[in-house]
Protein 1
Amino acid sequence: DPPNFPPGPPALPFFGNIFSIEAKQPHIYLTKLAEVYGNVFCIRLGRHKTVFISGWKMVKEALVIQAENFVDRPYSPMVTRIYSGNSRGLFFSNGKVWRRQRRFAMATLRTFGMAKGSMEENICQESRHLQEAMEKEEGKAFDPMQLLNSAVSNIICQIVFGRRFDYSDQDLRRMLKDLTDMAYLEGSIWALLYDAFPVLMRHLPGPHNGIFSSSRSLKASIRKEIERHKLDLDPSNPRDYIDNFLIEEKHNRKQDMGFVEENLVLCCLDLFLAGSETTSKTLQWGLLYLIKYPHIQDKVQEEIDRAVGQNRPPTVADRSNMPYTDAVIHEIQRMGNIVPLNGLRMAARDTVLGGYVIPKGATVMPNLTSVLFDKNEWETPDSFNPKHFLDDHGRFIKKEAFLPFSAGKRACLGEGLAKMELFLFFVTLFQRFHFSTLDVAELRTEGITGATRTPYPFKIFARSRFDLQPLCNAA
Ligand code: HEM
């Protein structure tokens, strides 16, 4: 190690710390390690070292104050195999291609809805489909995962593909299954093992191979959509992200800014993966927590009835009159901790952090769990407490350490869309239904950790609040 390199637990030759990482909840294990080795420490997997950064203050120092030093993503053998070829999409690209593609994606999100308000309408329409699908359950207990996944992905489908899918559509179901598998495996111990021992893992059977088959199948579905777009592309009237990209590809032929079809497939894959799993799982955690704490569900519904009523869909403007609901949604995001570890970074130059020197090219992982549960920033970090976001007069307050979307130059580019979706889906669901379950004691809050955190499967009852005719027998 170079002088002043961050400390870390003793490592075995060849294997490093691989056997001490707690495979089921690595984010908790890594958060606890910071209590022993400090907020900047190093873990070794094989010969590969990763510097973990913990706690709000140190993560802010790295991602915001020294943002320029931690803007790139490092090399990963697994990503290289998934993305095969020279393109890296949105999440894993670097330099001028990343800057150009990120700007392009954000501008396209704005064009297809965010600024014009049509996205608000799309989300409310999708909520109605979701409500209808829940009503069709007719009182039986059901697992909400499939319906929430479908509703949320339909929003990104409309932006990227220009269309939504019926919830029973087999193509949509297959894509969602592939997405879920990918999101789990990409953040699992299998992905760490693959990056630490690529030559060995390449030849071994095991769950890691699922990442490659899921990504191949997703890319094939996206290619089909692109072919469909090419048939009836009207350059004067782009309908969605794919149209916009194909038009830009024609203009950018000679410039190397990532406007090639291979990269379009990967950008769509990234938007899908980043844009549907995360929001859908946050809503699943929302149902779970509000069923677990029925008095909070009651207070949310009182506020919805007062601010929106029962006869019109909510709008984003209603948020300012709903501080309690807003606080509850923020607390769901905090406790749900959907992206427990942030996207990997690479130090652009030798950088001093917390007294240690992180050498140029080192892999760095900001630990978002350690920020959202930082004992110095949250009054009751381990319990569900909407008061974290309310002042003594019940007014909503922002918290600096609320970083579910990360921070700095590489922070989530879909934050605006995600917040709009969370608010509108959440309010329309609780406006229409009272949610319950058979046995609250069975609701588990630990979750299954991959690249995102998913609740263990749970079943719910949805009882209509409008006509006071219970839609379910048992709730
Ligand atoms: C609750 C919902 C969401 C959460 C919690 C979330 C969280 C995150 C986090 C933590 C990152 C990593 C940032 C970093 O490396 O510093 C990220 C990146 C990203 N997110 Fe999201 N996200 C959400 C929704 C969305 C949506 C709806 C979209 C799509 C429109 C999206 C698109 C992306 C993309 C493309 C990146 C990569 C950005 C880059 O590397 O420049 N996300 N997100």
Note: The domain at 26-464 is CATH 1.10.630.10 (Cytochrome p450).
Protein 2
Amino acid sequence: MGTTTTPTPRPDWSLTPRGTVSATAQGALALAALASIGDLTGLNPIWGGAATAAGALGTVVVSAHHDHGPASLLYRLGCWLGAGAWWTYTLATTPWNLNTFAALGIGALTAGLLAPLGRHTPRAPRRPGTALVLRHTSRIGAEWEARIQRVCRLRVTVTDVTMWATRTGYDVHLDLPGAGSTLAQISGAADALATDARLPEGCGVEVGPGMHRAAVVLRVSTVNRLEEEVPFPPLTTSASITDPVEIGEYRNGDVVQVPMRQASALVIGQTGSGKTILLNVLTSGVARCRDALVWHIDLNGGSLSQMWLAPWLDGRTDRPAVDWAASTPAEALDMALAALRIAKDRKTSARKLKIAADTTLMPVSPDLPEIVIFLDEGAEAVSPGDRSVRELREALEEIQRIGRDSAVRIVASSLRSTSDVLPPMIKKMSHVRIAMYVQDQSELGLMYEHNRAVNVADLPGPGCGFVQIGQATPRPFKGQYMLPSTVISAAVQIAAVRPELDERAQRFAGRAYADRYERMHAAFTDHDTDDAEGYERAIPAAPVAPARHLTVLPGGGGAEAWADPFDLARHRPAAPAPTSAAAWPEPRRPILRAEQIHPVNPAPQTRPVPPIMARALAAFAAADAERLHSAELADALGLSQTELADALRPYGIAPLEQPFKRSGTRARGYALEDFRVIAGGHTPGSQARVTPGHSAL
Ligand SMILES: Nc1ncnc2c1ncn2[C@@H]1O[C@H](COP(=O)(O)OP(=O)(O)OP(=O)(O)O)[C@@H](O)[C@H]1O
């Protein structure tokens, strides 16, 4: 058994204080020694004052550096000032009397008793980003912290609140508390949070990821912007399919950008939800690209393709804007099989191109364009229950499976997303999923796998929808509003500049593709309007830059020859000119501005003023105003703003582009002049009367 030896502790002769008492005693003795030396050497008291000031300043700087708390700083400052004052006093007088040493003793005792205050106590940790929260938004941040605690039982930290540029809402940035909390817990409670915040009807809370896994962004809308119209912007034709297609706006004013180079898309929506208008916007977004072609499968009586083909059917363009449109299941099958052959061929034939471009994705170009097949309400036509269309369905499904790299993509639309009408594969393979206005929550549930962030209450009406891109949370948006006249002028513009299908693909597409124009002409001319004269009037003679000038065509005749409201609607301003003026057709009739025309004598007979015009004119008269805000006019006519816009659209009357101020409020609205013109009144200073083909815009 061995013995253990305990090492003898070595004596510690250092002057380092062992505790509060020794530190206090050492301090007092050192001070007394300094006072004695000062007295013996006759040191000037000014050095005492200087040493005190330097010590106090050093204490402040060092405390700030070590982030000492306020109590610690005050204690250290107090010690320096007390000791310094005592020493300076002894230099000015003498330390050798009882009172002076009594003061030193009391000072040392006080410093010893208060010593715990001097310990290093760092400030309370600052909540990340709290300093960034501006004063006027910090109240909002505090409210949301309390709300999330109440509704989700999570103690989150709001790090920032930013107002939207549109002033119609704000973003709340927050950090989750950890301890197993996830973004899903908050997004699942989005509806409850919106209710708790008492947001107005149609407004809501969108929950999205932040900069890291524990960061969350709440997009809170406080004004229902989805009720406002998003006009279709002027069309440009130099885009590439590798750029996303813009289809509308989110609540915060951000543009909805849909990637179309690699993604297939699915659009659902009940009748009247705005599907066709959205498909028109998507068609223009793809067809305007220098490296993409649109093919339509339109088994729905031509409701999608008709207007895109109209300028070509009418002989105004040499080729249609839409490269191929199928109106029968047989031709749709020919199209799908042709696209499939092209996709398969490109898989191997594009290999050299990929190596040359050193890219893993087939590079598209005007010489090798992407093909996007639009299937208008055709999902039903390829529904799983229908055996007769099995081949078409299988071909489309295979394109979705293999056509990403080969740049053959599908945009399918359907009334519903249930598996009895929509092949599950088409839904599964659609990277972009858009659900236009529906009344039934279960429809949205089926489309977005019952994502709890998706609520039918967030869609105030037609033209609104949810869009989901990839795995992102579906977000409400308002689609761009594309009018028939805009489609037709876009078709003219696109037909002039779009690419042709590459020769190799044409060979793989076969005879069905080579003969397509004849069949399209026959099929879609059949659907054309009998009123050729009226239809010609609807086609813009030449594109004009959007401007709210009164444009009147010369003419005469009786009131019976007035333009149909639908024609008037189609004479709205068109998009800007295509790349070359030579591409434009000759105008049928010269277009003159109001100030350029001579008065026309009023016709003896006049058509009765439409009731909506009469009531609107009365509302302007009652308000004694030349302009009225949309809300005011809608109220006066007992309509909602959307109903008012819908009622006036056939007459070509739309709100003024620029908002204006009335009673201190700035908003968009209508001009009396527009109603006067349509109602057959006289524009100020003019005797011009609207005659057939006249446009009020
Ligand atoms: N983006 C929009 N902005 C404003 N209103 C819109 C918009 N989209 C659609 N609407 C309104 O909804 C109506 C129906 O639109 P659209 O014809 O596109 O619907 P749909 O779903 O194709 O209907 P259907 O299946 O019956 O043809 C339009 O006449 C218009 O009043």
Note: Residues 1-6, 124-133, 537-606, 682-697 have pLDDT under 50 and may be disordered.
Protein 3
Amino acid sequence: MDTTHIQDDLVEVLITEEQIQTRLAELAAEVWEHYEGKDVLLVGVLKGAVMVMADFMRHLPGSAPMDWMAVSSYGSGTKSSGVVRILKDLDTDITDKHVLIVEDIIDSGLTLSWIRANLDSRSPASVEILTLLRKPEAAKVEIDTRWVGFDIANEFVVGYGLDYDEGYRNLRDVATLAPHVYS
Ligand SMILES: O=P(O)(O)OC[C@H]1O[C@H](OP(=O)(O)OP(=O)(O)O)[C@H](O)[C@@H]1O
Ligand code: HPA
Ligand SMILES: [Mg+2]
């Protein structure tokens, strides 16, 4: 394990742990109201969405199942390759189910637009998207996203599940990474 202190590799905290929790609680209330009387399956996208899923679902007032897909498009760099690979598929048959995709970030949008098309092809009752972060200036494709936690500037961020080269996911806040780390 790297024993350098994580804070030394950061430029600035953009969103604090407290801000994240407050926003996730608001979103959970909206989502619960939206699906009133319906069963919804939460689909997380590994690995980045682990923290969002864990905290978001605990703000829901009632029970909801979760499932996971693992895809990768970023590898070890800071730019999306645009080539999405399924590393792990859902365990659940989503035919006729209401699906809510839970994501950490929409950057270029390439990953989610691919996932959404893939899930749509399985004849679910509905598919909606919730993302903690979105970078409007980085969008390469438009994505219909019903719930967004925070719109952020077009900078590479880490923490709260988001990695650079698999590191920094355990940072509790969302922060910008110092260029010395990746240049
Ligand atoms: O909108 P995009 O430009 O496609 O980028 C967003 C995707 O990139 C990251 O995943 P990554 O491929 O790094 O996998 P990870 O979640 O395991 O870190 C992130 O978690 C999103 O899934
Ligand atoms: O800004 C980012 N940080 C970490 N992972 C990412 N995947 C897409 N954008 C980002
Ligand atoms: Mg990543």
Note: The beta strands are 10-15, 40-46, 66-72, 85-88, 98-106, 126-134, 147-151, 157-158, 174-177.
